[in-house]
Amino acid sequence: MDLIERRNRLSSTANPDKKLDYIVTLEGHLPNSQSHSRHIALRYVPDRDVLDAKSFGVYLEALSQDTWATPEDLAVTILSDINNQIIARWIQVSLNVPELQHHAVETHAVVIEDRQPGWDNAGLLSRLERI
């Protein structure tokens, strides 16, 4: 699936109060061909727009149709796609996948974050559950 087609699956609505900082959390999974699930968690502080939850599910289904070389590649793609569709004040993507490359490694997890320059709300972010 090409970049534009994938990103077009994401839709948003206007933030009901742009003056407030609040955290939105969406969690889901990407099933793969070996019936192993890739858990995806998205947390963000909206600015102008709020991501539509149903469209995030449709987007995850679209992602599962592609092959991802590494969990890092998948995490960077999700962050880039969502940053392109909504401009969040702060955004975090985390994913946890079963590690299938070696029998001694059970899980491979990635956490990636981005924020608008100059935005900081340490009090709000300190309330988040640690990953």
Please, could you describe this protein's structure?
- With 131 residues, the chain is of the alpha+beta class.
- The chain has one domain: GTP cyclohydrolase I, C-terminal domain/NADPH-dependent 7-cyano-7-deazaguanine reductase, N-terminal domain (GTP Cyclohydrolase I, domain 2, 2-Layer Sandwich), CATH 3.30.1130.
- Helices cover 27% and strands 31% of the residues.
- It has four helices and six strands.
- It has helices at 3-7, 53-63, 71-85, 122-125, and strands at 12-14, 24-31, 37-45, 49-51, 90-98, 107-115.
- The strands form two sheets. A four-stranded antiparallel beta sheet has the order 2-3-5-6, with helices on one face. Strands 1-4 form a two-stranded antiparallel ribbon.
- The protein starts with a helix and ends in a 6-residue tail after the last helix.
- The mean pLDDT is 90.
Keywords:
GTP Cyclohydrolase I, domain 2; 4-stranded antiparallel beta sheet; single chain; 27% helix; alpha+beta; globular
Summarize the structure.
The protein is α+β, with helices and mostly antiparallel strands and 131 residues long.
Low-confidence stretches: none
Based on the coordinates given, report the CATH architecture.
Answer: 2-Layer Sandwich
Instruction: Give me the count of strands.
Output: 6
The level 1 CATH classification is Alpha Beta
Broad structural category: alpha+beta
Number of helical elements: 4
Spell out the CATH superfamily. GTP cyclohydrolase I, C-terminal domain/NADPH-dependent 7-cyano-7-deazaguanine reductase, N-terminal domain
Order of SSEs: HEEEEHHEEH
Strand content: 25-35%
Shape: globular
